[in-house]
Structures are given as structure tokens and as C-alpha cells.
Design goal:
Elements (H helix, E strand, L loop, with lengths): L1 E7 L6 E9 L18 H14 L2 H10 L2 H10 L5 H11 L23
Antiparallel strand pairs: 1-2
Helix pairs in contact: 1-3
């Protein structure tokens, strides 16, 4: 699946002729009409990021990291209502966050969360 995103020309504010494309598999987005997802929509962007980190391949996660800035990824993960405990544990370490900061953390059975410290 490719989600196109126009990169605006900063001088004119108009879309540039080049396009940046997010290339990810649709595996993690089952249950969604992928053709209707809009990378420019905040809710869709959050859904895409969260679902890829929850169920995407390693290559899909790398594509997300390459496509979005770190702050966008961080905010999407922190504000998502449901994430797997393993996603919270891994990204909390990677982003240097406390699991309690995640909105999804409050919905988890705390006995499921195994936060490792390296």
C-alpha cells in the first residue's frame, strides 16, 4: 500500500512537484478501508502509526519511522486508546517514556505489562 503525501514548497506554500510516499503493507490495517485513509488527517495518521506499531512488520515500522518525524510518532502512540502491552513496553524504552504516560496503558490489565529495563 502506498499513501501519497504532497510535500509543500515552503517558499510558496503550494504543493511541490515531488511527492513523498509511505510504502507499507496492509497487514496491520485489516478492518479499515485503506483506500479511504488520508495521511493528512490527524485521526487517520494516528490510526496508521498505532496499527503499524501494534501489528506491522519490521519493514513497515521502519517505513513509519522514515516517513514521520519522531514527535508525530510519539504523540500518535501516546494518544491511542488501545495498544498491545508489548507495543507500549517497546516504544516506551525507545522513546524514553514511562508506560503510564500512554492513554492505552490505563485500559490494560497491569499484570500483562512486562516493562524491561536494559
Amino acid at each position: 500500500m502506498a499513501l501519497d503525501h504532497s510535500i509543500p514548497n515552503l517558499a510558496t506554500g503550494k504543493p511541490a512537484t515531488s511527492r513523498k510516499s509511505l510504502q507499507i503493507s496492509t497487514r496491520s490495517l485489516w478492518g479499515y478501508d485503506v483506500d479511504s485513509l488520508n495521511i493528512d488527517d490527524d485521526q487517520d495518521r494516528q490510526t496508521i502509526i498505532a496499527r503499524v506499531f501494534d501489528a506491522g512488520t519490521h519493514e513497515d515500522k521502519l517505513a513509519i519511522i522514515d516517513f514521520f518525524d519522531l514527535e508525530t510518532i510519539k504523540q500518535a502512540l501516546l494518544n491511542t486508546a488501545e495498544l498491545q502491552s508489548s507495543t507500549i513496553s517497546l516504544t516506551a524504552i525507545w522513546l524514553n517514556l514511562k508506560p503510564e504516560m500512554y492513554r492505552a496503558y490505563k485500559r490494560l490489565d497491569l499484570s500483562q505489562l512486562k516493562h524491561a529495563s536494559f
